[in-house]
C-alpha cells in the first residue's frame, strides 16, 4: 500500500507539472510563425513520450488497484456467507428456544393446575371437617367422645383415621405430581439455558464477523477512492497528451509550410570562401581530437581564422540558432537551416551567430562567423548535412570542388 502511494504521489507531481505545461500547450496560432524550431518540436515530442510512459504506469497502478478491490470484494462475500450461516444457526436456536418456552409454559400451567387441585382438596377436607362439626355429633371430637362404648369409639376412631388417610393420600399424590412437574420444568429450563448459551456464542461470532466485514468495507471504500483518484489523473494525462499532440501537429504544419515557402537550390554552396578548402577532419570514424578515442565524426571540420564569415549552403529557414546547452553543448554557438528538399545544414563552433531562428535565409547569406566555442580545440567550422533527419557525408555534395586534407604538415588533395 505504501509503495503504491509513493507512486501515486509521483503521478500527482506529474499532474501538477502538466497543469504548468498546459497553458504553454495552448492554441498554436498564438505563436508567431517565425518562432517554430525543430528543437521545440523535439522537446514537445519527448514530453509526449514521457506522458505516454506515465500513462502506462498509471494504467498498471489502476490494474493493481482493481485487483485489490476484487480481492477485498471476494473477502466481503466470504464474510457475508459466514454471517448468513450463523444467522441461520441462530434462527434455528431461536426456534428451539421457543419450543422449550412453550413446553415450560405447559409445565407451569400443569403446576398451577395441580396447586389449584391441592388447594381444592384442602378446602374440601376443611369443609368436611366443618360440616361434621356443624352436625354436632359427627364432629371428630363429638364422634370420639360421643361414642357409647369403647368398641364404637374404636369404630368411630377408625372412620376418622380413614377419612384423614384418604385426604392425606390425595394430598400426597398431588404433592408428588407437583414435584415431578417441577423437575420436568427444571430440566426444560436447563436445556433452554444451554441453548441460550449457544445462541450467545453464535451471536458473538456473528458480531466478530460483522466487525471484520465493516473493516473490509472500509478498505473497499479506500481502494475505491484511490481508484477514482487514479482515473482522474488518467483523464488529466489524456487531456494533456491530446493538447500536446495537437500542438506538435500545428507546429510541424507551420514549420513545413514556412520551409516549403523557400525554394531550395539543387546543389549546396561551399559554406566558406572558396580558398578556405583544407579540411582537418573528415566525416565518419576518426580518433577523437580531445580524448584520442575512436569516435564517429558527425560532419567535416574546416579550420579558418576567427571571424571568417560562414555562408548558408542552401536557401531555407533557420530552425535553430543557439549557444548549445545540454547534449548540444559541444556545438557551441550553432545554426541549423532547414531546406524545402528535406535536407538541413548545421554550422557549429561559431564565434557569433548572424541569424535567428525562424528567419528565412538565401543561399550565400552569412549565418555566422568562425570561432571555437563548445567542444573545440581551435577556430574551425564544423559542418553537417542531414537528409530527412539523418546525417550524411557532406563531401558527397562537393565532388566538383577542389578540396584538401591536412595530415600533419602535409596537405593532401582529396580524391572525391
Ligand atoms: Zn567537427
Question: Which structural class matches the secondary elements?
Answer: alpha+beta
Q: Number of helical runs?
A: 4
Might you state the CATH topology name of the largest domain?
Helix Hairpins
Low-confidence stretches: 18-33
Largest sheet: 7 strands, antiparallel
Terminal Cα span: 67 Å
CATH class division of the largest domain: Mainly Alpha
Percent of sequence in beta strands: 15-25%
Q: What is the mean pLDDT?
A: 86
Overall geometry: rod-shaped
Give, in order, the helices and strands: HHHHEEEEEEEEEEEEEEE
- Small ligands present: zinc ion
Helix content: 55-70%
CATH architectural designation of the largest domain: Orthogonal Bundle
Oligomer: single chain
The number of domains is 2
Q: How much is the radius of gyration in Å?
A: 56 Å
The tally of beta strands, per DSSP, is 15
Describe the 3D structure.
This protein has 416 residues and is an alpha+beta fold. It is 56% helix and 16% strand. The protein is built from four helices and 15 strands. Strands 4, 6, 7, 8, 10, 12 and 13 form a seven-stranded antiparallel beta sheet that branches. A hairpin with a 2-residue loop joins strand 14 and strand 15 (410-413). It is rod-shaped, with a radius of gyration of 56 Å. The model is unreliable at 18-33 (pLDDT under 50). The protein binds zinc ion (ZN). Zinc ion binds at residues 281, 297, 299, 301, 382.
Amino acid at each position: 500500500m505504501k509503495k503504491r502511494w509513493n507512486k501515486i504521489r509521483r503521478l500527482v507531481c506529474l499532474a501538477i507539472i502538466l497543469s504548468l505545461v498546459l497553458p504553454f500547450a495552448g492554441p498554436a496560432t498564438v505563436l508567431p510563425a517565425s518562432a517554430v524550431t525543430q528543437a521545440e518540436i523535439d522537446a514537445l515530442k519527448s514530453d509526449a513520450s514521457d506522458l505516454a510512459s506515465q500513462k502506462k504506469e498509471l494504467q498498471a497502478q489502476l490494474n493493481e488497484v482493481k485487483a485489490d478491490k476484487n480481492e477485498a470484494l471476494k473477502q466481503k462475500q466470504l464474510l457475508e456467507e459466514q454471517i448468513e450461516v450463523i444467522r441461520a444457526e441462530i434462527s434455528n436456536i431461536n426456534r428451539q428456544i421457543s419450543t422449550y418456552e412453550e413446553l415450560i409454559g405447559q409445565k407451569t400451567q400443569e403446576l398451577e393446575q395441580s396447586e389449584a387441585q391441592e388447594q381444592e382438596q384442602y378446602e374440601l377436607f376443611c369443609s368436611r371437617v366443618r360440616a361434621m362439626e356443624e352436625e354436632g355429633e359427627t364432629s371428630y371430637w363429638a364422634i370420639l367422645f360421643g361414642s357409647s362404648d369403647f368398641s364404637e369409639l374404636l369404630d368411630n376412631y377408625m372412620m376418622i383415621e380413614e377419612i384423614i388417610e384418604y385426604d392425606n393420600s390425595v394430598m400426597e399424590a398431588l404433592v408428588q405430581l407437583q414435584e415431578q412437574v417441577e423437575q420436568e420444568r427444571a430440566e426444560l429450563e436447563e436445556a433452554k439455558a444451554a441453548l441460550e448459551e449457544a445462541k450467545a456464542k453464535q451471536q458473538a461470532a456473528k458480531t466478530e464477523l460483522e466487525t471484520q466485514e465493516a473493516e473490509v468495507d472500509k478498505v473497499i471504500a479506500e481502494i475505491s477512492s484511490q481508484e477514482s483518484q487514479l482515473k482522474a489523473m488518467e483523464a488529466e494525462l489524456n487531456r494533456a497528451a491530446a493538447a500536446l499532440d495537437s500542438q506538435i501537429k500545428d507546429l510541424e504544419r507551420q514549420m513545413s509550410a514556412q520551409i516549403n515557402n523557400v525554394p531550395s537550390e539543387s546543389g549546396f554552396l561551399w559554406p566558406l570562401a572558396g580558398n578556405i578548402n583544407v579540411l582537418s577532419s573528415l566525416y565518419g570514424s576518426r580518433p577523437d581530437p580531445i580524448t584520442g578515442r575512436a569516435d564517429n565524426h558527425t560532419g567535416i571540420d574546416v579550420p579558418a581564422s576567427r571571424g571568417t564569415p560562414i555562408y548558408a549552403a542552401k536557401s531555407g529557414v533557420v530552425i535553430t540558432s543557439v549557444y548549445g546547452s545540454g547534449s548540444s553543448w559541444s556545438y557551441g554557438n550553432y545554426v541549423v537551416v532547414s531546406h524545402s528538399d528535406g535536407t538541413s545544414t548545421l554550422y557549429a563552433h561559431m564565434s557569433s551567430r548572424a541569424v535567428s531562428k525562424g528567419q528565412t535565409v538565401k543561399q550565400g547569406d552569412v549565418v555566422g562567423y568562425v570561432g571555437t566555442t563548445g567542444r573545440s580545440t581551435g577556430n574551425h567550422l564544423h559542418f553537417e548535412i542531414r537528409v530527412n533527419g539523418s546525417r550524411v557525408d557532406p563531401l558527397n555534395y562537393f565532388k566538383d570542388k577542389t578540396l584538401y586534407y591536412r595530415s600533419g604538415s602535409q596537405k593532401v588533395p582529396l580524391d572525391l
